[in-house]
Amino acid sequence: MDTFGLIQLAELIYEYCGIDFSKSLSSLEAKISERLNELGLSCWEYGGYLRVEPKEWDMLIELITVNETYFFREENLLAEFQKTVLPQYKDRTPENPLRIWCSACSSGEEPYTLAIIAEETGLFQTGAVEIIASDINKKVLEKAISGSYNKKSFSFRTMPKEMLEKYFVSAEEEYVIRDSVRAMVDFRCINLMDKDIAERIGKVDIIFCRNVLIYFNKEAINKVINSLYDVLNDGGYLFLGHAETITGMNTGFETIYTPSAFYYRKGEKCT
């Protein structure tokens, strides 16, 4: 595969969704080679194809995004979310709900986990918690919306048995999330690099954006974090993955450290 064509394609991908393949062209090549063979196109020609067939971006996004996730991932961080953060919003009502944005929800395990945790606290009446779950990959969003997961799936690797029995219905080879949990989550297809995120999401109180920034370069990270900052209400909370940090980047977020986890709270940006 021609290196120049790969470089051009990597630039197109970066401009479209912020994922940076500039230092991992071989990985990009491996992800798209089968698709190029199907279309009978060179890498260079594929870049032109994306311009005239914009729906092909959906297929490309499926190929290049990583969607490994599971229920109750990073339990220490979720424990902090449950014990420290959620009680601060216990007075929310269906008329003024707690709004949580899961900004890279993949196949739905994370937003459903957040909904289960909110239910487990017993702090909120029905309708007082609204979870917006978004992803750029339309195929995994379809799975998320279905709320159905194979019983042998790695999705349940850390799922407490009592939570599985309480919040899922057994259906042949699948476990299906209960309707009461599903009703708390609103799934949407959103590209984190889009300029109209604030209008499409509205103000939220808490954001989960875990294990996304590791695929971006510094410029893209700054753009995404600025968007998240604008969407969050004052004093709202941001949860990133354990391998991601924005400390020292003058983003307007203050870091909250606990013995087992760290996360961020929206403060004022330094001028």
What does this protein structure show overall?
The protein has a seven-stranded mixed sheet. The protein has a three-stranded antiparallel sheet with strand order 3-5-4. Helix 1 (3-17) packs parallel to helix 3. The chain has 271 residues and is an alpha/beta fold. Strand 1 (98-102), helix 6 (109-121) and strand 2 (129-135) form a beta-alpha-beta unit. The chain is built from eleven helices and ten strands. It is globular and about 55 Å long. Keywords: Methyltransferase, S-adenosyl-L-methionine, Transferase. It holds the Pfam family CheR. Residues 1-269 form the CheR-type methyltransferase domain. GO terms for molecular function: protein-glutamate O-methyltransferase activity.
